[in-house]
């Protein structure tokens, strides 16, 4: 069983017997239609693209209500195209990893072309220019990570042949401008706040510089700024797509599926002919298009206005997901866990995050209306975090914790203040923050040192708690005031809002020698 069997028509009954879902549409017809009248180009050929946007379009095509695929362009790691796309005729296998331990296997055939987005690949670049000149093109989108939207001064000086992704995209937008100032939507699908604004700022920077240099007419800058022509909608995306997993590879091998190996590029991208991903996913997009759009709602996309996208993001980041992750990462590291899924089997930790979400965060949750916050948290706790296939670790999530606390907990505390809610009801959120001081010591609950995750403020914050020891007996905890009054870390002065003393008292318990973390966690979680 190989992906190329689909193109060659060598499909045995074994595919169905082994539970593989095959395309329900005419792959070659969709490919021909897309080549002639392209509607969507996506930049970023990584795992998240194939597991989510491409899979959504695959569902839309399977419905029989749409007839165009997506063209993928890679602007950074060209080996992905050479090794993970073209040898398989752009087909891939999506392996959905369910919290029950079951897996679903679906062949994704919605990607009709794969191109290298760089001038050095002459034929590919010429094809991208041709696509951008097509009146049928409705949307370009991105999963290139937040750093992919960067603009470097040196790149701005390269004129119309920049090397960074946003420069190349702006050069292609100039081709669309020259073809008649045709309309287009520029859609980020990356997991970063107000992502559309990041694309817009980068495009404006290149276009402005080129006008200044006399390389393009002022009308081009006006074109990209004209919202009747070019739009940059916001979106919120949420899905985990880990590296190819050895357990999944073995399951596929046992099926007789031969394209089950991992590909590692020279740029250290981990990819494969298959993608393993969690079952839970959300993609909410601001519905602000100038030339129509693919009907991705057929695959589950939620279209809404900008305010609703913002509310969904706040619900996820400030109350219903990210704070739970951070609470688990701090305590998971101290309790010796290396897997989030294993933490969910710990009764204290499971109750800890449940009560943070349902009891303490829910009173100030931003309800977006289109996603129920209770159902969202339920999916997090019951399906996402316990998923045995997800090799996510508290150590990874604990990276840059100092940069996350203000958003993930400070915003909730400020919301309690603004709404006049009783802050004495906050018990477990203070326990998270008390645990942070204990975490900074880098000593686990057995009294053994552990490696603290990378953090730009680590040395500075560790210096504050340096006088403290993890041991029973009296010691001076006055140094904690210098920590918990830091608005740059927590978003608020925790003493000024009446929580500093409570957090300090909890910290004293957490520092009381080996076993204190477990005992304190159990005590406050049980009481809550």
From TrEMBL:
Gene3D superfamilies attached to this UniProt entry: N-(1-d-carboxylethyl)-l-norvaline Dehydrogenase, domain 2, NAD(P)-binding Rossmann-like Domain
SUPFAM superfamilies the record matches: 6-phosphogluconate dehydrogenase C-terminal domain-like, NAD(P)-binding Rossmann-fold domains
Keyword terms of this UniProt record: Oxidoreductase
Domain Mannitol dehydrogenase C-terminal positions: 309-495
Domain Mannitol dehydrogenase N-terminal: from-to ranges: 41-272
Catalytic activity annotation: D-mannitol 1-phosphate + NAD(+) = beta-D-fructose 6-phosphate + NADH + H(+)
Protein name in the entry: Mannitol dehydrogenase family protein
Species of provenance: Faecalibacterium butyricigenerans
């Amino acid at each position: 069983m190989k992906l190329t069997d689909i193109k060659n028509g060598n499909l045995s009954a074994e595919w169905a017997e082994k539970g593989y879902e095959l395309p329900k549409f005419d792959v070659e017809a969709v490919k021909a239609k897309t080549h002639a009248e392209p509607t969507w180009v996506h930049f970023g050929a990584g795992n998240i693209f194939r597991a989510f946007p491409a899979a959504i379009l695959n569902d839309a095509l399977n419905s029989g209500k749409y007839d165009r695929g997506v063209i993928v362009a890679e602007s950074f790691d060209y080996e992905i195209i050479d090794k993970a796309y073209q040898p398989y005729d752009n087909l891939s296998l999506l392996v959905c990893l369910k919290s029950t331990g079951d897996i679903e296997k679906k062949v994704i055939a919605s990607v009709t072309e794969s191109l290298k987005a760089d001038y050095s690949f002459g034929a590919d670049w010429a094809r991208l220019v041709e696509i951008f000149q097509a009146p049928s093109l409705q949307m370009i989108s991105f999963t290139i990570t937040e750093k992919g939207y960067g603009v470097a001064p040196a790149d701005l000086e390269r004129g119309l042949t920049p090397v960074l992704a946003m420069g190349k995209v702006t050069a292609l937008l100039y081709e669309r401008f020259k073809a008649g100032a045709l309309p287009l939507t520029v859609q980020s699908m990356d997991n970063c706040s107000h992502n559309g604004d990041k694309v817009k700022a980068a495009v404006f920077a290149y276009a402005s510089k080129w006008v200044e240099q006399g390389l393009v007419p002022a009308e081009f800058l006006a074109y990209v700024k004209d919202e009747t022509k070019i739009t940059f909608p916001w979106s919120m995306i949420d899905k985990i797509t880990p590296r190819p997993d050895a357990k999944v590879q073995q399951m596929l091998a046992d099926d007789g599926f031969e394209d089950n190996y991992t590909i590692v590029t020279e740029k250290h991208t981990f990819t494969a002919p298959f993608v393993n991903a969690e079952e839970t996913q959300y993609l909410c997009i601001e519905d602000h298009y100038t030339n129509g759009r693919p009907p991705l709602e057929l695959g589950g996309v939620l279209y809404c206005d900008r305010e609703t996208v913002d509310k969904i993001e706040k619900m996820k980041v400030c109350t219903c997901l990210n704070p739970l992750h951070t609470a688990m990462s701090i305590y998971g590291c101290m309790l010796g866990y290396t897997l989030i899924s294993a933490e969910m089997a710990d009764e204290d930790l499971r109750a800890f995050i449940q009560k943070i979400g349902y009891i303490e965060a829910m009173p100030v949750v931003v309800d977006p209306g289109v996603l129920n916050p209770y159902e969202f948290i339920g999916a997090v706790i019951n399906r996402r975090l316990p998923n045995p296939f997800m090799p996510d670790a508290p150590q990874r999530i604990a990276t840059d914790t100092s940069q996350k606390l203000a958003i993930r907990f400070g915003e909730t505390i400020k919301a309690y203040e603004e709404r006049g809610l009783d802050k004495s009801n906050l018990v477990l959120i203070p326990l998270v923050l008390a645990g942070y001081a204990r975490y900074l010591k880098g000593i686990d609950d057995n009294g053994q040192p552990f490696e603290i995750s990378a953090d730009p403020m680590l040395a500075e914050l560790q210096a504050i708690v340096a006088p403290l020891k993890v041991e029973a007996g009296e010691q001076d905890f006055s140094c904690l005031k210098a920590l918990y009054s830091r608005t740059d870390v927590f978003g608020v002065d925790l003493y000024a809002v009446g929580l500093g003393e409570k957090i300090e008292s909890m910290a004293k318990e957490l520092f009381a020698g080996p076993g204190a973390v477990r005992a304190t966690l159990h005590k406050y979680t049980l009481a809550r």
